[in-house]
Amino acid sequence: MADAVGKKSLLCVPVESHKRIRRLLSEPFSMTSLSAFITKFDKLLCGRLQILEDSGKSFKVLDFSMKMTFDAMCGMLMSITEDSLLRQIEKDCTDVSNAMLSFPVMIPGTRYYKGIMARKRLMETFREIIARRRRGEESTADFLQSMLQRDSLPADQKLDDSEIMDNLLTLIIAGQTTTAAAMMWSVKFLHDNRDAQDILREEQLSLTKMKPEGASLNQEDINNMRYGLKVVKETLRMSNVLLWFPRVALNDCTIEGHEIKKGWHVNIDATCIHYDSDLFIDPLKFNPQRFDEMQKPYSFIPFGSGPRTCLGMNMAKVTMLVFLHRLTSGYTWTLDDLDTCLEKKAHIPRLRSGCPITLKSISRSMPEA
């Protein structure tokens, strides 16, 4: 994995470096940054849903959500809006993502080879963007600029260029692939569970009625999506877009009679936990209201747990909530392919069909893009 995303990625660094890098990367995930992200993502989403509605054509939710989340992350991190540059970075990030768990052999045509070559192109692109920022040719209030403004600070209060670039790549991939897959699964689960869809739509329409026509969503609106948050949680529980969490034992320990030595690699199986009938009644049923009750500790871990809990978990939640709000308050939809088979050779569970749907408008009350 380190060959693909970088040895200084938050996913790969040892515990000593992890604390420092995580602390410095936390700014774009603060409440202030998330509030700004909600409004920007809402406007971007509304514009693209309008295009799909006008076309009247079926589209794959997975493809749509992959592009939406990618463009939103690149905008937040580096203020990139040029479509040709976005599409090139997206293609290279896809190759890197595919290489992360592939067999590490540099043979042309293999996933690993394509990923390593894509990484080289991405590092050069990021290097050029950083150079332009330092020359004063570009200056935008975003994540990258906040990192570069620390240049004169002591080493423990800033990231070097390789740390910045490796973690730009990490944040883009992590912010796109898992969130997009979860958005796709939410549409599938709501299609299959009309009662939950109706309850969610009622909540979202009630929020819309309290806002001026055409107003964008804000943090207060997100906080009021109580049933929506339960839908997000239940989607994450059932979809398990992160199937397992690799960890390294820092000390010798014993768990239920099983001895684990210091330095051993341990994989935590999230799917096994989330489908445990001792923890969740009728675990195969999509039931958002199960989250009316407090869950047992460590029974719900879609973002991991402990010091390496996913840094972007709140951003993933608000992204899904904005998407579900605009989808259910503005549209009904038909699922155009009932195939439930999963995509092969994907390290994230995704429908092979991509979940194609056709939208039908309920009413229009969306902000201008």
Automatic annotation (TrEMBL):
Subcellular location: Membrane
Names of the cofactor(s): heme
PROSITE patterns recorded: CYTOCHROME_P450 (PS00086)
Superkingdom, taxonomy of origin: Eukaryota
Positions annotated to bind heme: 310
InterPro entries documented for this protein: Cyt_P450, Cyt_P450_CS, Cyt_P450_E_grp-I, Cyt_P450_sf
Gene Ontology CC terms, in alphabetical order: membrane
A biological-process GO annotation: brassinosteroid homeostasis
Transmembrane keyword on record: yes
Main location: membrane
Keywords: Heme, Iron, Membrane, Metal-binding, Monooxygenase, Oxidoreductase, Transmembrane, Transmembrane helix
Cross-referenced Pfam families: p450
Membrane protein topology class: Single-pass membrane protein
A molecular-function term among this protein's GO annotations: monooxygenase activity
The family this protein is said to belong to: Belongs to the cytochrome P450 family.
UniProt name for this protein: Abscisic acid 8-hydroxylase 3-like protein
Organism taxonomic ancestry: Eukaryota, Viridiplantae, Streptophyta, Embryophyta, Tracheophyta
